[in-house]
Write a structure and sequence with these properties.
Mean pLDDT: 78
Number of strands: 0
Distance between the termini: 94 Å
Order of helices and strands: HHH
Largest sheet: none
Number of domains: 1
Structural class: mainly alpha
Shape: elongated
Length: 78
């Protein structure tokens, strides 16, 4: 009976040890990588937005867009 109990304890220890170093623990480490990838995508999107706003401000596109929207709204109200 003692051998059976020690074997069960050994099997449980091995299962817990393998479980802590197996694929699940690697998945936990990948979470940080995913966060870093999202951060890089957000930085890229912010850079593109800054370039777009700079272009639209210099070209007067924002003013033309607002004028077109307001003209459309005023035209529908009349």
């Amino acid at each position: 009976m003692k051998n059976r109990r020690s074997f069960s304890q050994l099997a449980l220890f091995a299962l817990l040890h393998v479980g802590s170093t197996g694929p699940r623990s690697r998945r936990r480490d990948d979470r940080g990588q995913t966060t870093a990838e999202y951060a890089l995508v957000l930085l890229g999107a912010a850079g593109i937005a800054v370039l777009l706003v700079g272009w639209a401000t210099k070209s007067g596109a924002i003013g033309a867009l607002f004028d077109a929207v307001l003209d459309g709204v005023v035209g529908r109200v009349k």
